[in-house]
Write a structure and sequence with these properties.
Elements lengths: L1 E3 L5 H12 L5 E3 L6 E3 L10 E4 L2 E4 L6 E3 L13 H21 L4 E2 L13 H10 L8 E3 L10 E6 L4 E6 L8 E6 L5 E7 L2 E7 L8 H18 L3 E9 L2 E8 L8 H19 L6
Parallel strand pairs: 1-2, 1-6, 6-7
Antiparallel strand pairs: 3-4, 4-5, 8-11, 9-10, 9-11, 12-13, 12-14, 14-15
Helix pairs in contact: 1-5
Length: 283
């Protein structure tokens, strides 16, 4: 089995461990720049070979591929910044083609119509609005402190795109994307795993969001992820004025989730992989 995603992705790590414990051979593709692929042009794509850590894996022997994210960072050869960027784009394009043509089931198979795995947050937010999903206003913060000293702020560190919460106005002195939370405005992370959903709630005071708000988050996630053709991803919302407002999509497990939710997601992913093993070529 192939897992494409970050080595720091907690849910993906649990999935890898559980599958290996069950006797499955699992390969993690965390950086495509360090992986070689040989794709014959005159025969079936299933004859492609992938080199990972001095091991050769034939694509025909891969049972399932799970795509959380695709990254091509750096190069084994010294290159100029321009050449490195070009090489990274070409590597990514080759892997997208390979995953699209793979005959085995691929969870989050790259779409030929809309590149849901690659769209920027700005593009995803624009798509959400076109689907009638309200988006929460965001702003970029670059100073070392937040003027709203008494507020709780959800923020995305633009250096590593990880989610954090800042209290008492304290933020590292580097760019962050902010969306301030009111005292009764919970953050809802709705993760879709096939047909199953895990909704994680981070409260900023107040009580639990209503069943209507939870269902609204699930329905909005379904609408957006169907359009992006992603069967595994997390949509994050803020409940404001009795309605869900969308912030962003995570292809990897966001670090704001509770350990319980991460474990539930990992369990659902293992179950989904098992179902894909029994199904024909799918997403």
């Amino acid at each position: 089995m192939l897992l494409a995603g970050s080595a720091q992705d907690a849910a993906l790590g649990y999935v890898q461990t559980r599958l290996q414990t069950a006797g499955q051979r699992v390969c993690l593709l965390s950086n495509l720049a360090g992986v070689s692929a040989s794709i014959p042009l005159d025969v079936d794509v299933s004859d492609a070979r992938i080199g990972i850590d001095d091991q050769v894996l034939h694509l025909r022997n891969v049972a399932v591929i799970l795509v959380s994210s695709l990254r091509s960072d750096g190069s084994i050869h010294p290159l100029s910044d321009t050449d490195a960027q070009y090489a990274g784009h070409e590597t990514l394009a080759a892997w997208l083609a390979l995953l699209t043509m793979a005959r085995c089931p691929v969870i989050n198979r790259p779409s030929s119509r809309l590149p849901g795995l690659l769209l920027s947050n700005i593009e995803v937010r624009g798509l959400a609005r076109s689907l009638g999903i309200p988006t929460l206003p965001e702003r970029i913060h670059t100073a070392g402190r937040n003027r709203a000293e008494d507020s709780v702020t959800a923020c995305i560190d633009l250096a590593d795109h990880r989610a954090r919460f800042a209290r008492a106005g304290e933020l590292p002195a580097r760019p962050h994307m902010l969306f301030p939370l009111g005292p009764d405005e919970p953050l809802l992370a709705c993760t879709r795993i096939g047909e199953e959903y895990v909704v994680d709630i981070t409260r900023n005071g107040g009580g639990e969001p209503s069943a209507r708000i939870r269902e609204q988050a699930r329905l909005m996630s379904t609408r957006l992820l169907d359009r992006l053709e992603l069967s595994y991803a997390t949509c994050v919302f803020v409940a404001r004025n009795g309605e869900c407002q969308f912030t962003r999509v995570y292809r990897e497990t966001p670090n704001l989730l509770s350990e319980e939710s991460v474990q539930r997601i990992a369990t659902a992913l293992v179950d989904l992989i098992g179902k894909r093993l029994e199904s024909p070529r799918g997403r």
